[in-house]
Amino acid sequence: MKIDSGDTAWVLASAALVMLMTPALGFFYGGLVRRKNVLSTIMHSFFILCLISVQWVLWGYSLAFGPDKFHLIGGLEWVGLNNVGFTPNADYAPTIPHQAYMVFQMMFAVITPALISGAFAERQRFKAFVIFSLLWATFVYDPIAHWVWGAGGWLHNLGALDFAGGTVVHISSGVSALVAALVLGRRLGFGKEKVEPHDATMTVLGACLLWFGWFGFNAGSAVAAGSLATSAFVVTNTATAMAALTWMTVSWWHKRQPSVLGAAAGAVAGLVAITPASGFVNVMGAIVIGFGAGVFCYMAIQLRERIHVDDALDVWAVHGIGGTWGALATGLFATVAINSTAANGLFYGNPKQVLYQLAAIGASWAWAAIGTFVILKIVNLFVPLRVQEDEEVLGLDISQHGEPAYAL
Amino acid sequence: MDATTVLAIICSAIVFAGWVVLPHSATTIVKASVVSEEERTPVSVSA
Questions:
Q1: Cβ–Cβ below 8 Å for A249 and B15
Q2: What pLDDT, on the 0 to 100 scale, is given for residue B22?
Q3: Residues above pLDDT 90, as percent of chain A
Q4: Under a CB-based contact definition with an 8 Å cutoff, are residues A385 and A189 in contact?
Q5: Which residue of A has its CA nearest to B17?
Q6: What's the mean per-residue pLDDT of chain A?
Q7: What is the CA A259 to chain-centroid distance, rounded?
Q8: Could you report the predicted ipTM of this complex, rounded to two decimals?
Q9: Are the beta carbons of B27 and A256 separated by less than 8 Å?
Q10: From the CA of B46, how many Å to the nearest CA of chain A?
Q11: Cα–Cα distance between A217 and A285 in angstroms, integer?
């Protein structure tokens, strides 16, 4: 196998783009919390970037992408990047060094647990967060990544399509966020006092940086610099824009004003929804997917508010529901005209693909929910998940980190 | 024109047409609750 310099350059640049998404997420979330918790919220993302970067090279990559064991998990043959060198791996990316593929995938593993942190913002003990994140990455993310993307993984073998992580990244984090919100309970004063985002500009800036980084996430998943990457780039931008327009319109109709934060949240919902489909659908499919993301994710937030679940930054509504819609929509709108190595969806004459997508959705929901619940209960045996009431009132920036965000 | 294109056109039409009937000004005026230092006293920017 010959290394292609163009492909390698694109995948390494994409890895850097995806890396930027995690601190961008920190800013997106950081603007949405109260001033007393902004630093701790940003720290969740920054810390996970460091933690999973180490976990991934030690054992994460091996569990997710290593030689298959029972179609469920990768083996330990690649622990410490043993056997993961510069020779391309034909199963994953035949034209780039194996380590380039590894580091690209690392950035996906990094951002996924960071996404969950929005659910328990403003109340989780940092030490509990640290232990939870390490266990979650190992026992929830790595197995699902192997099922869907690993050579020999059972969902991969079944024929389920997930180009860049609708099930692996977004359903897993979104569903886990819902479970975490339920297990931790509501913030003090939830539903009684108004919790306003402390800096909407920070959130919009974070959303813009996420959008920018997402081109690496989706177009980089082609693992080659060619027409498929171009198509993924175009549909990503189209679906994102359509979702932002749709969300803003729905919220305008519902709340009588066009919300800026709503437009930003809509853009993120669109990015989420197009992720699994980005290498399989054409630009018309992207418009429908973006429209659905704007409508369904907005409705999910209304439902979440109605049942009084304190998923603080709506991770479940945006990532869980957006990822589910995107995975299902892949089964509807996929076409071999875009990706000849994949399959057609329902609208192109292959209704079976919807069943494969439903299997992937169901498996991801179940594993993420059960795994997260068990991990949280285990962590709680050793470290209380929540901070004490006085610490929560004081704010996590001071109580957990001893630093204020702003010296005003 | 395939079914996906028809759906995409319908979705776009719903959003674009929606703007025609949506309110064109805020129904609730929110007054600023904080007066910034700059608004209270003019700030000199000269050296």
A1: yes
A2: 84
A3: 97
A4: no
A5: A249
A6: 97
A7: 24
A8: 0.89
A9: yes
A10: 23
A11: 19
In B26-45, the residues whose Cβ lies within 8 Å of chain A are: 26-28
User: What pLDDT is recorded for position A195?
Assistant: 85
Q: Which of residues 3-22 of B touch A (CB under 8 A)?
A: 3-5, 7-8, 11-12, 14-15, 18-19, 22
CA distance A66 to A31: 38
The candidate with the shortest Cα–Cα distance to A65, out of A19, A99, A21, is A99
**For position A192, what pLDDT does the model report?**
87
Burial of B18 (0-12, 13-18, 19+ CB in 10 A): middle
Q: Which of A334, A373, A374, A364 is nearest to A172 (CA)?
A: A364
Which value, in Å, is the radius of gyration of the alpha carbons in chain B?
A: 23
Indicate if the pLDDT at residue B47 is higher than 50. Answer: no
Q: What is the mean pLDDT of residues B39-45?
A: 54
Which DSSP helix (H) or strand (E) runs through B14?
helix B3-21
Contacts of A319 (CB under 8 A, 6+ apart): A115, A169, A170, A171, A173, A174, A177, A272
User: Which residues, 6+ apart, have CB-to-CB distance to A119 below 8 Å?
Assistant: A176, A177, A178, A180, A181, A311, A312, A313, A315, A316
Give the model confidence (pLDDT) of A6-26 as tens digits.
999 999 999 999 999 999 999
pLDDT mean over A386-407: 95
Cα dihedral A114, A118, A122, A123 sign: negative
pTM for the model: 0.94
How would residue A230 be classed by pLDDT, with cut points 50, 70 and 90?
A: very high
**pLDDT tens digits, A46-87:** 999 999 999 999 999 999 999 999 999 999 999 999 999 999
Q: For residue A167, what is the DSSP state?
A: I
Main-chain phi, psi angles of A68, to 5 degrees: -65, 140
Contact B7 A249 (CB under 8 A): no
Using an 8 Å Cβ cutoff, are A14 and A224 in contact? no
In chain A, residues with a C-beta closer than 8 Å to the C-beta of B7 are: 284, 288
Paired tokens of A316:
């479940």
From chain B, the residues in CB contact with A288 under 8 A are 4, 7-8, 11
The confidence score (pLDDT) of residue A176 equals: 98
Residues of chain B neighbouring A249 (CB-CB closer than 8 A)? 15, 18-19, 22
